[in-house]
Amino acid sequence: MANVAVAKDPKLTAAKKRAAKTGFHPSPYAVAKALTEGDLFTKASAVVLGLGNIVHKQYVKGAVFLLGEILFLYLFFTSGISCLAKLAYLGPVLKGSDGWDDDGNYVHIDATNSVRELLYAVAWIFLIAGFVLFWVAAVRSAYSAQVLTEKNGRAPTIIEDLKALLDSQIKGSLMALPTLGLITFTVLPITITVLLAFTDADHNHWPPFNWVGFETFAKVFDPNGSVAAGVNLGLFMKVLVWTLVWAFFATFLNFFLGMFMAMVILRKGTRLKGLWRTCFSMSIAVPQFVSLLVIHQMLTDQGILNTMLKDWGVIDTSLPFWTDSWWARVTVIVVNLWIGVPYTIMQITGILQNVPGELYEASEIDGANWWQTFTNITMPYILFVMTPYLITTFTSNVNNFNVIYFLSGGAPAAVGESAGDTDLLITWLYKLTVTKLDYNVGAVIGILTFIVLATVALITYRSSGSYKNEEGFR
Amino acid sequence: MTAVTKPAHTGSLRTRRLVGDALAHIFLAVMAIIWLVPIIWVFAESFNKNTAQNPPTFFPTEYTFNNYIRLFTDTSVLDFTSMFIRTLIIAIFVCALNVFFVLSVAYCMSRLRFRMRKPYMNFALVLGMFPGIMSVVAIYFILNALGLTGGGAQTMIALVIVYAAGSGASFYVMKGFMDTIPMSLDEAATLDGCTKWETFTKIIIPVTKPMIVYQAITGFLIPWLDFVLASVICRTQENYTVAVGMYQMLQKEYIADWYAAFAAAAVCVSIPIAVLFIFMQRFYQASMTGSVKG
Question: How far separated are the first and last CA of chain B, in Å rounded?
Answer without folding.
Answer: 41
